[in-house]
Amino acid sequence: MPITQATCSSFKSELMQALHNFSLVGGNTFKLALYTNLATLNASTTVYTSANEVPNSGTYTAGGGTLTRQGVSLSDTTAFTDFVDLSFTSATITARGALIYNSTNANRAVCVLDFASDKVSTAGTFTVVFPPATPTNAIIRIV
Question: Fewer CB within 10 Å, N- or C-terminus of the chain?
């Protein structure tokens, strides 16, 4: 099973150790790297890897792009965070999934995104669209 959508198990443990800070002020830097269908990413992924990452193209370079945090919110018993959509321009990319990771803190893995099929841009803009920042849709939720 190459890419399986998941919150990384190590991330769950690292939250209890205060190793990830999603705050708007003073928070960590999180990045998103894109991967081909040959990548193996899942809940067991612990850190960013360049293995089977898509090649550099346009504004996409190894390690991916920096995400813009939307802060942390709490609604009833659900804490959540999300990011602004991320685009890579003038890029020829075929990606099957992505890894969000904390580049401030030893490139620790946060979550794996499975695109369900190859997504392609040809000398164009490749955009990763994040869901709405709500307690039922945000990309990262603790219920």
Answer: N
Q: Is residue 1 part of a domain?
A: no
Domain, as residue range, for 49: 6-142
- Our count of domains for the chain comes to 1
Dihedrals phi, psi of 14, to nearest 5 degrees: -70, -25
- What pLDDT, in 10s, does the model give residues 41-66? 999 999 999 999 999 999 999 999 99
122 belongs to a structural domain: yes
pLDDT in tens, 83-112: 999 999 999 999 999 999 999 999 999 999
Instruction: Report how far residue 82's alpha carbon sits from residue 110's, in angstroms, rounded to the nearest whole number.
Output: 12
